[in-house]
Amino acid sequence: MHRYNWLEKILFLPTRFERVKLQRALEGKTILITGASSGIGEQVAYLLADVNVHMILVARSEEKLAAIKQKIEQKRARVTVIKADLRNDDEQDVVLQYIHELPDGLDIVVSNAGHSIVRSIFHSLDRYHDFTRTMAINYFAPVRLLLSLLPLLEKNQGQLINVSTINVLIQPLTYGAAYQSSKAAFHVWLQSVAPELHARGIITTSIYLPLVKTPMIVPTTAYTKMPAMSPAHVANIICKTMYTKKRQYKPWWGVPLQWASIGLSGVWLRVTSRIVKRGRE
Question: Which keywords, in A-to-Z order, does the entry hold (predicted)?
């Protein structure tokens, strides 16, 4: 488990979480969690283990899903695991078929599956797949999934929780073209359809996160010394929105960062350009 240092304790304030309220709100509900085999998705599953819910855990690693199911089955929650790469339409169809055959439908979707790439654009000149694969999992997969599941969420007056990044709210960071553009695409899609969903009784919640200590960031060595949230902390935030129905979460410093990002965009470009130039010298 990732333990916060003094700076992280300041940046990522504790989340007050009430288990009784969660249990009351979720009693008998069915919850789909994508990207559930590690990191945030795994921690959300563990946090819901003592609640009378049916969790549908989806990820690519069958072995990891099985291990999570084994741990949770000893508690109150019922667990179904489905091995699927959501970028593959046939595998996504297996997930959708199972959900549509459920007698009580679906109540909550935690859209968490994702892929990150941090790479200079000049190292991607012959890697067009950097962009197609991030768009495939970060944008096209959740859109296709939700186009099928929205009627079920409407019927049950459910909730869609999107695990996003604070990067979609600020000036794009250098080396993040593939990842940030794909996350921004789904962010805009969800913001566009949200009024229609709300009008039909579907709550949408966007969780705008900074860096999180998950396996996804391991390949980027520069992230190892940067402040990062604990996946367990993020799970608390996500599960809390299941009973508060809060429309969004961002760190306390998120709004000042947004304003600074807009007001200092020219300065940001000059500074980052100098940093990149220095790194090449």
Answer: Oxidoreductase
The vertex-59 CA angle with 58 and 62, nearest 5°, equals: 105
- Cβ neighbourhood burial of 233 (10 Å; 0-12, 13-18, 19+): buried
How far, CA to CA in Å, does 168 sit from each of 97, 157, 258?
Answer: 32, 27, 10
- Dump the DSSP string for 219-233: T-GGGGGS--B-HHH
Residue 145, SS3 per DSSP: helix
Which class for 125: exposed (0-12), middle (13-18), buried (19 or more C-beta within 10 A)?
exposed
pLDDT of residue 224: 77
Q: Which tens digits make up the pLDDT trace of 139-189?
A: 999 999 999 999 999 999 999 999 999 999 988 888 889 999 999 999 999
| For helices 141-155 and 89-100, angle between their N-to-C axes, nearest 10 degrees | 10
What is the pTM for the complete model shown? 0.94
Q: Is the pLDDT of residue 193 over 80?
A: yes
Q: Phi first, then psi: what are they for 17, rounded to 5°?
A: -125, 125
CATH architecture of 6-280: 3-Layer(aba) Sandwich (3.40)
Q: Which of 139, 179, 208, 249 is catalytic?
A: 179
In angstroms, the CA 87 to CA 135 distance is: 9
Collect all residues with Cβ–Cβ distance below 8 Å to 207 and sequence separation of at least 6: 161, 162, 163, 164, 234, 237, 238, 241, 248, 249
Per-domain residue ranges for the chain?
6-280
Q: Are 216 and 175 in contact (CB under 8 A)?
A: no
Chain Cα centroid distance, residue 154: 21
Confidence band (pLDDT; 50, 70, 90) for 252? very high
Is 175 designated active site? no
CA pair distance 72, 54, nearest whole angstrom: 11
Tell me the CA distances in angstroms from 96 to 32, 80, 257, one per residue in order.
Answer: 11, 13, 38
